[in-house]
Amino acid sequence: MSVETKSVWNHVEAPSIDGIIKVSGYFLSYIVCLFLASRFLPSIEAKSPKKTYQLTGLLIYLILTVLIPIGYYTQKLSLLFIIENYISFFIVINIFAILFSLYLLKRSEAVQAAPNANRPIDYWHGREKDPMLFGVDLKVFFYQPSLLGLALINISLAEAQITYYGGLTPGMICYQIFWYLYLLTHYIREDFMLWTFDIIEDHFGFMLVWGDMIYVPFLYSIAGWFVANNHHQPLSIVWVACTLVLHFVGHYIFRESNWQKFDVRKYGSGVKIWGKKAELLEGRLLISGFWGIGRHLNYTGEILLYLSIALCAGTTSFVPYILPFSLLILLSQRASRDDQRCRKKYGDKTWNRYCQISKFRMIPFIY
Fold first, then answer.
1. Alpha helices in 166-236 (DSSP H)
2. What is the 3-state secondary structure (H, E, C) of 102-133?
3. Dihedral angle sign, alpha carbons of residues 308, 312, 314, 316
4. Spatial separation of the C-alpha atoms in residues 312 and 334, rounded to whole Å
5. Alpha-carbon distance 122 to 117, whole Å?
6. How many Å apart are CA 107 and CA 302, to the nearest integer?
7. Under 8 Å CB-to-CB from 263, ≥6 apart: which residues?
8. Separation in Å, CA 99 to CA 32, 105, 123, 331
9. Which end of the chain, N or C, is surrounded by fewer C-beta atoms within 10 Å?
10. How far is CA 311 from the centre of its chain?
11. pTM of the model
């Protein structure tokens, strides 16, 4: 096999009318198949503070976990068309987001729910909080093409590295493992998202549709392009080892801290955290587990997780590091705002007591 030296980007085709039509067929088939799977596959019943949902994400993810390797093993599957038509996919999905958001604004149920909401800001935010279509909650459903789209782009980048450069680098292997585990842990506790602000309070309009369909799959996979291209500077054993440690530490802190608070909110203070009954200060502020160490360690874990993904690209470019460092800035500011908001909510006396127990904001002994 001859090994190429040019970038994976050189294999991306310029958009054309024929390409747009072909990609539109691929994408609509993808959406329809996922919608039918969400509608008819066996589901898990999960409750949020406002309603009960039927979740199929874990089953769909596990099915793809089996089918995709079988497809590659039998040489019946190739996802290189995603790379080759990447720009066309970006155009088609943006058009879909614009048109589908218009449908959400104009459909009869939305007009009945908010007859006077017909301004550009209503198109942005959406008229309805929980639009339903054939028994499927659309706001929850859109997580599936979003996250699974990210997974498919990542896999196509691995296939591109094998096809164009002759094999997988250690960086690409780590990259694939990290993202697979990230999505797996999301789907294992898929009910967590039902308690987030997006699901509970936000309306469903262009902001969330575009975020699901474009922002997540296209932005979050950017590092993968640089991982795929970095075949000429393999990561050292020390670099890989440090990256693995950083990822698993960050991943554990991120998921476990969020799940600890989630379990207390959902099941009450009777749950156990690290083998002990959860403790709440004045019955309101969790001081067990990570929440007894730092007030926003979930943010710290999230930053470390995305930093480890960027490290899979090595030092070939600063671009993969934009996401973790932007999160560092944004989440540090959010942590400060959260503290101010909580001080107003719980009062100076209670919040000062809490800060004496949970001493650190994001980084133990430093911040």
1. 170-188, 197-200, 206-210, 222-229
2. HHHHHCHHHHHHCCCCCCHHHHHHCCCCCCEE
3. negative
4. 27
5. 6
6. 37
7. 271, 273, 278
8. 16, 10, 11, 32
9. N
10. 18
11. 0.91
d(CA 350, CA 352): 5
Question: Looking up tokens 């296939």, which residue turns up?
Answer: 159
In this structure, which amino acid lies at residue 206? F
Please report where in the chains the tokens 């002759």 appear, as a residue.
166
E strand or H helix at 96: helix 86-106
